[in-house]
Specification:
CATH superfamily of the largest domain in chain A: Nucleic acid-binding proteins
Largest interface: A-B, 38 and 41 residues
Radius of gyration of chain B: 27 Å
Largest sheet of chain A: 5 strands, mixed, barrel
Distance between the termini of chain A: 83 Å
Shape of chain A: elongated
Number of domains of chain A: 2
Helix content of chain A: 25-40%
Oligomer: heterodimer
Number of strands of chain B: 11
Distance between the termini of chain B: 69 Å
Helix content of chain B: 55-70%
CATH topology of the largest domain in chain A: OB fold (Dihydrolipoamide Acetyltransferase, E2P)
Largest sheet of chain B: 6 strands, antiparallel
Strand content of chain B: 5-15%
Strand order of the largest sheet of chain A: 2-4-5-7-6
Chain lengths: ~160, ~675
Amino acid sequence: MRAKRKQRLLVILGLVALAAVAVGLTLYALRSNINLFFSPVQIAEGQAPLERQIRAGGMVKEGSVARDPDSLDVAFTVTDYVEDLEVRYSGILPDLFREGQGVVVVGRLQPDGWLRADQVLAKHDENYMPPEVAQALEDAGYSPEDYQDKATDVAKRLEAED
Amino acid sequence: MLTPLIPEIGHFALIIALLMAALQAVVPLAGAATRRPLWMAYARPMAAGQFLFLIVAYACLTASYLLDDFSVATVANNSNSLLPWYYKASAVWGNHEGSVLLWSLILGAWTFAVSRFSRELPRDMLARVLGVMGLVSAGFLAFVLITSNPFARLLPNPPADGADLNPLLQDVGLIIHPPMLYMGYVGFSVVFAFAIAALLGGRLDAAWTRWARPWTNVAWAFLSVGIALGSWWAYYELGWGGWWFWDPVENASLLPWLAGTALIHSLAVTEKRGAFKSWTVLLAISTFSLSLMGTFLVRSGVLTSVHAFANDPSRGLFILVLLGITVGASLLLFALRAPRVSHRVGFTWLSRDALLLVNNILLVIMTVTVLLGTVYPLLLDALNLGKISVGPPYFNALFVPLTVILCVFMGLGPLAHWKRTAGGSLLRRVWLAGAAALGIGLLAPLVYGGEWNLKVTLGLVAALWVVLPLVRDLWEKSRDSKGRRLAGLRRLSLAHWGMVLGHLGLAVTIVGVTVVSNYAVERNVRMAVGDSVEVAGYTFTMTELGSRRGPNYVADAARIQVRRGDDARGFVMTPEKRLYIARGMPMTDVALRPGLFRDLYVAMGEDLGDGSWALRLQYKPFVRWLWLGALLMAVGGILAVIDRRYRRAATAPDPERVPREVAA
C-alpha cells in the first residue's frame, strides 16, 4: 500500500512539474510574442509603444512609394485618411502590394515617429480598408463614411488608370 | 438532352443521401437501445445507399465543371472554359461548397468501408458505430444543403464564362492536398464513432480499441501526408521559401494530428494492456472534435487566407453549432458513462506503459499550447478585447523544447517492456546509442557548418536518440534462436516495422527542420541582366529577362545561369512572375533545383524599374527531409494496419491476451 501511495505521489509531482513548466513557458512565450494592432490614428495619438513589435495597417498612400535606386530599401506611407504613418522596409514587397490597397505591416515604431517594418503583408479583400483599421477608426469616433468613401474613390481612380 | 439536368440530379441525389444518413443514424441507434435486430440491420444498407447517392451527387458536380455549365453558381465562380480538364476536376474542391461536399463524400466512403470491413463486429456495436457516423453525416449534409448548396444555379441568365480558379490553386499540390487532408480529418470520425458506441453500449472493455486501431492509423497516415503536402505546396507556391508559418490554418490541421498521434499510442496501451481506457475515449473524442474545429476555423471565414472561402456568417455559425453539439453531447456522455468502466491496471514507472503515458501527456501539452496560440487571438477579438496576433516565436519557443523532451522518452519507449523494465538492462541497452547520438550531434555542426551550434546539436542528438536505440534493438532482434543473423528480422511483425518507420520518419523530419532552419541561406537581391550574385557557394548570373505568354496568363521571365565553384557547366533556372488574366492576379512561379541534400530556390520579387528585378535567392539544405519524414511516418502507419493480427480479426479472442486482462 505504501509503495502504491508513494507511486501515486510521484505521478502527481511529475504531472505538477510538467504542467508548471508548460504554463511557465506558455506565459513567457505569449508575453513576448503578442503583437498588438494599431491604426495610424492610434499611433499619432501616441498609444503605440516604441521599440516593441507591433502591427499597423491602413492603405498605401498614392504616390508615396519610394524605392532606393541601388538597394532593396523602400519607404511608403500608410494612411487611414485621417493620419499618416511613414514605413521603411528593406526587402521584397508582396505580389499584392499596391498603392491605394490595404496593407498590414509588422515592425517597431521608432522614436521619431516612423515604423521600421520587418514584414509587409498585403491581402486581397472586398473592402478597400483592412477590417482592423476600419474598426480602430470607428472606435476613435470617426464615422465609416469619413474614410471609406475616400478609400473607395482612390481605389477606383487607380483602377481606372490601370 | 440530359445535360442541363445534371445539377438537378446531383441536388436530388444529395437530398436522398441526407435522408438516408438520417435513417442510418436514427433507426440503428434506436434499435440498439431497444434490442431490435431488424432496426439494427438498417445500418449497413443505409450506409451503402448514402455512399452511392453521394457519389452520384459528386459525379454530377464534377460533370458540371467538366462540361463548363456556368449556370451553376460554384462553377461560374471557380472555373473557366480555358482551364485544363484536370484543374476543372480539382476546382470542384477549390471552393467552400465543393469542399464540404467532398468532406461529406469522404465521410460516406469511410462509413461504407466500416460497414464492409467490420462484419465480425457484434451486431449492436456495428449498429451504434454506423449510427453515430450517420449522425455526423446527417449534420454535415444538412449544412451543405442549407447553407452551402454547390448546385445553386444562376438561372435564367447564366454568365458566358467563369471567373476562373484562384491561380494559387492551379497546381498539382491542390489536386491532392485537400483530399488527403480530408481523408485524415474525416477518418478520425471512425474512432470517434467507436468510442461513442462503446460509451453508449457501456462496453468499454479493450475490444473496441482493437477494432478502432487500424482505422485510426489509416486516418493518421492520410493526415500526415495531407499536412506534408500543404507544407510543400506553401514552400514552392507562395514564393518566399517558407515551409511552415504557424498560420492558424496550418495549426488547424496540426492540432488533430498531435491529438491523433497521442491517440494511436494510447490505443496501443488500451488494446495491449487494458489500461488508460477512459483516457483513450477522451482522446478519441478530442481528436475528432479538433478535426471539426479545424474545419470550422478554415471554412468559417474567421481566418483570412487562401483557405477561407466562405464569408457568409450563417455558415460559420452552423458549423460552430454542429461542433458545439458534437463536443457537448460526447463529453456529457463521457461524463455519465466513463467512470463506470474504469478499472486499474498496474505498472511501474519504468515500463512501456509509463513511457507512453508521458508521451501522451507531452503530446496533449503540445496540442494545448498550439490550440491556445491559435484560438487566443480569435477569442479576444470575439470578446472585443483588441486585435492581437500571436507570432511564430511563440510557437517555436514552446514547440521546439517540448519536441526535444518528447524525443528523450521516444528513445526509451520502444525498448522498454510492458508493465515493468529493469532499469539496469534498459541502461545497458541504450547507453551506447546515447553516447553515439551525443558524439555525432556534437561533431556534426563542426564538420557541416564549420562552427559549433547548440540548436543543431540539440536537434541532431534528439533525432539520433530516437533512431539509434531502435537500430540497436533491431540488431539484437535480428538474431534468431539459433543465432543466425537477419533471420530474426523476418519474424518481426509488420506492426513493429510500422512503429520503427514512424519513429524514423519523425527523426528524419527533425533533422530536416534542424538543418534547414539553421543553415538555410536567403538573400534578397537587386539584379539586372549580366549581374552575378554568390549564395552558399553557387554563383547566380542573370542572362536574360523577357516576357512570355501562357494559356491563361502573361509572365515576366528571367533566365538565371547557376554555377557551383569552378564547375563550368552549371545549369539554368527560370523563375517567372505571372499575371493571370481572368482575375488580374499576380503570381510568383518559383524556379527550384531540388536535391536530397539541398534545394536551390529562385523567385522573382518585383520589378524595380530600370530593367532590374528584386530576386529571392535561397539555399535550402535538407529541406526535402521534412516531407520525406512525413511520408515515412505515413508508410509506418499503413504498415501497422496491414499486420496479420488485424486481418485475422476479432472472431476468436486472442488466447494470449485474455488471461492477462483477467489477471489485471
